[in-house]
Amino acid sequence: MEKVWEDLYKAAKNVQNPREVSERIYAGGVAAAIAASSGKIYTGVCVDTSCTLGICAERNAIFNMITNGDNEIKRVIAIMSDGKTGAPCGACRELMTQLMPKSYQHVEIMLDYKKEKVVTLGELTPEWWI
């Protein structure tokens, strides 16, 4: 396995801290880490609310990346509450495609960390905006 995937996994695991923030907000069940084209790693956690104001861990990490001046994603990993890794939801995929409409197909996504299964966003989202 490439070291960058190990670094991303550790970065996401370090911020994954499931907790009740308030009676209406639960955070940290899912954590994500993104490797930007600059080489920097950005993290985020999901924030679940009792209305539609919540955010997924991947989008939180993307917004963290944008806030800090990077615009291009190379790799993404998300650790679910059960400890397994998985694919971004449709909203997260949509944000990545809008952020990088000409090159989103090449973003690598770790589907299964233990089995080292990586796919591209292009494989998960082959027909964006048909």
Describe the structure.
A hairpin with a 4-residue loop joins strand 5 (108-112) and strand 6 (117-120). The N and C termini lie far apart (35 Å). This protein has helices at 3-15, 57-67, 90-99, 121-124; strands at 19-22, 25-36, 41-49, 73-79, 108-112, 117-120. Strands 1, 2, 3, 4, 5 and 6 form a six-stranded mixed beta sheet that branches. By secondary structure, the protein is an alpha+beta fold. The chain has a single domain, classed as Cytidine Deaminase, domain 2, CATH 3.40.140.10. 29% of the residues lie in helices and 32% in strands. The protein is built from four helices and six strands; from the N terminus they run H-E-E-E-H-E-H-E-E-H.
Q: Give a short account of the largest sheet.
A: 6 strands, mixed
Q: Stretches where pLDDT falls below 50 for ≥5 residues?
A: none
CATH fold assignment: Cytidine Deaminase, domain 2
Number of strands: 6
How confident is the prediction overall: mean pLDDT?
96
What is the C-level CATH assignment? Alpha Beta
Helix and strand string, N-terminal first?
Answer: HEEEHEHEEH
CATH architecture tag: 3-Layer(aba) Sandwich
CATH superfamily: Cytidine Deaminase, domain 2
First and last CA, distance: 35 Å
Radius of gyration, rounded?
A: 14 Å
Return the domain count. 1
Helical content class: 25-40%
How does the helix and strand content classify structurally? alpha+beta
Q: What does the overall shape look like?
A: globular
Organism: Ligilactobacillus salivarius
GO molecular function: cytidine deaminase activity; identical protein binding; zinc ion binding
GO biological process, one term: nucleobase-containing small molecule metabolic process
Family: Belongs to the cytidine and deoxycytidylate deaminase family.
